[in-house]
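Lab notebook, bench 4. Still working through the backlog of constructs that have no structural model yet. Next entry is a single chain of 117 residues. Request: give me the structure tokens for it.
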Amino acid sequence: MRLKFVAVTLLVLALCYLGAGMPAAHLLLTPAVISDGLTLKAITYHWTDRFDRALPEAELLASRFYVLLLAALGAFSAMSALKADRNTKSFIFALGCAITLFVIFLCAQTQAYYTMG
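Model written out:
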């Protein structure tokens, strides 16, 4: 079971990396890319916002990796919540994922409000 989990995790990471356009590995670890990815800047970009226009294109595209990773995490937690063999461990994991996603979406909304507003 653990080997299957590791294989699925590596496959999801590879698909997120491919979906982000295979950015350079050093770009994925820069603080600007991580913060832009976790605040969903890649999907809230707007060309009329002067702060968005100042973002380097390579960093914006690399931040898609984290957006796709969050989407995969949401899908994984939904699938684990819908499994037929529910137990306390999977429920706590799904609840932790849901709370983490809630905090990330709240921070993204707050940053988008203060950037545009």
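Notes after review: The chain has a mean pLDDT of 79. The chain has one domain: 2-116. Flag for follow-up if needed.
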